[in-house]
Design brief:
With 466 residues, the protein is of the alpha+beta class. It contains seven helices and 14 strands. The chain has helices at residues 3-52, 146-198, 214-264, 269-296, 309-327, 345-362, 421-431; strands at residues 54-58, 61-65, 75-81, 86-89, 111-117, 120-131, 134-144, 305-308, 330-333, 340-343, 368-376, 379-386, 435-441, 445-453. The model is unreliable at 409-414 and 461-466 (pLDDT under 50). It binds adenosine-5'-diphosphate.
Length: 466
């Protein structure tokens, strides 16, 4: 059964229950008021009779003598002696010698009872008649209930009709309201189905209601999930396209050279060199991809050791020095105090190599690269400043994405990388609890800031490499 049907049924049942309860209360109240009215009339009649009643002894027996009982107003009276003899009765009971209420004859207290005699429905008051301390008989006063019964019957049918109408109208209203409030859920279902059928993650669920109610929150959570999924799938698609693109060129070069040698029927040294260069490029790319994949997923194990960051910087500067010299780029290292950090030295070295290597790679001949270290509270930062071409503002937010290369560096040259170096640097720094940022001005150069936590307590008990 649908949620809508279940809610409608539940609410209709609640409405029905409440209406029935109210109807019952009204019916009970009205019938009690009407019966009390009859009872009051019966009590008054009894008092009138009692004030005029007399008991006399005839032939050794007590006889109750009542005033002439000419009850015109539909009130019936009988007087019974204790030994069960009818000693007086109202004229409207002429010829009727059974008790109006057989149970009331033996009562010790005034007793009101409903009695059915043939077709007549009566309300009977039985009161024991006291003489001194002795009970000498019982007087029964009765009245028809027919009018009250008729009124109650009408009331019952009106109330039943009203309850039924209330349930039907309430059910319709609840059904309409539930359909209206659950309609956005249908939209969610339809959109989800459309996405599944058309593989279209760009769809969003339209919702025009208040954004902070339950449905609004569900729709917004669903839309956010779609956004995230769309971004993830886009990134995956771009990644596959980028990898295929990067693989195609070296594979074409290798295939071309192999074809050439096959046609020549001999090995060619130049062709073999070219094949080797491309294979080395491919190997580098696959290694970088593997490192990136493991760093991104946090599966690159961190072998933290107490490490002298200054020494690590000097080691990397020494390694890139060869390329710097070849390009006539001057690399300077600023003065700094020795700083010991708790990091995986091999991974941080990779970060420094990528960033300082880029600075040398992108700085033209005659330019300058300067590396400095600064320390602030629990953080140490490596600043790598160059006088290169700078990074256009539209590229800055993307350079840490995998395979991202600013337009200028998209030409194929030996110095060109795969656009993976900064992504690897970003993820390794993040895995160490640090971050990496860039400030750049086109035409003036760039400065990269690699921030790492000192992590004094994290390395306790580990080997020291510093
Ligand atoms: P690549 O292997 O292409 O250098 P990276 O991930 O290391 O890839 O860098 C991404 C892009 O960021 C580079 O292609 C380049 O456009 C830009 N970039 C990185 N470092 C610098 C720098 N020091 N100066 C100018 N541009 C840079």
């Amino acid at each position: 059964m649908s949620l809508r049907a279940r809610l409608t049924l539940l609410y209709s049942a609640v409405i029905g229950g409440v209406l029935l309860l109210l109807g019952g209360l009204v019916y009970g109240l009205v019938s009690a008021v009407l019966i009390r009215q009859i009872d009051r009339t019966l009590s008054q009649s009894f008092q009138e009779i009692l004030s005029a009643a007399q008991v006399s002894v005839v032939g050794g027996r007590r006889v109750i003598q009542l005033p002439p009982l000419d009850m015109a107003s539909g009130v019936f009276v009988q007087a019974w002696t204790l030994d069960g003899r009818l000693s007086a009765w109202s004229s409207n009971l002429q010829g009727f010698n059974r008790p109006l209420d057989p149970v009331g004859l033996s009562t010790a207290e005034p007793l009101f009872r409903d009695v059915t005699l043939g077709a007549a429905h009566l309300r009977v008051l039985s009161v024991p008649l006291q003489l001194g301390e002795h009970t000498v008989g019982v007087i029964q006063v009765a009245s028809r209930r027919n009018e009250v019964d008729a009124a109650l019957r009408v009331l019952l049918s009106v109330l039943s009709g009203a309850v039924l109408l209330g349930i039907v109208l309430g059910g319709l209203l609840v059904g309409w309201a539930t359909r209206r409030s659950l309609a956005p859920l249908d939209d969610v279902t339809q959109t989800a189905l459309r996405i599944t059928r058309a593989d279209d993650l760009a769809s969003r669920i339209p919702y025009h209601g208040p954004p902070d109610d339950e449905i609004g929150q569900l729709v917004s959570a669903f839309n956010r999930t779609l956004e995230r999924l769309e971004a993830l799938f886009d990134a995956q698609r771009r990644f596959v396209a980028d990898v295929s693109h990067e693989l195609r060129t070296p594979l074409t070069v290798i295939k071309g050279n192999v074809d050439l040698m096959r046609r020549m029927g001999a090995l060619d040294a130049e062709a073999l060199d070219s094949i080797q260069t491309e294979i080395e490029r491919l190997t580098r790319m696959v290694t970088d991809l593997l490192t990136l994949a493991r760093a991104e997923s946090g599966r690159l194990p961190l072998h933290r050791q107490r490490t002298d960051l200054g020494a690590l910087v000097l080691e990397v500067v020494g390694q890139v020095g060869v390329l710097a010299q070849a390009k006539a780029v001057q690399v300077q290292v600023g003065e700094f105090e020795p700083v010991s950090v708790c990091v995986d030295p091999d991974q941080i070295k990779q970060v420094l190599l990528n960033v300082i290597g880029n600075a040398v790679k992108y700085t033209p001949s005659g330019g300058q690269v300067s590396v400095s270290l600064s320390r602030e509270a629990q953080w140490v930062t490596v600043h790598v400043r160059d006088t290169g071409p700078g990074i256009p503002p539209e590229d800055v937010p993307h350079i840490f994405e995998r395979f991202y290369r600013a337009e200028k560096s998209r030409t194929r040259s030996d110095a060109r990388g795969f656009g993976l170096g900064l992504s690897i640097a970003y993820w390794i720094t993040r895995n160490h609890g640090g971050d990496i940022e860039v400030e750049s001005q086109v035409g003036e150069g760039s400065t990269f800031h690699i921030r790492l936590p000192l992590g004094e307590e994290a390395c306790q008990g580990r080997d020291s490499r510093a």
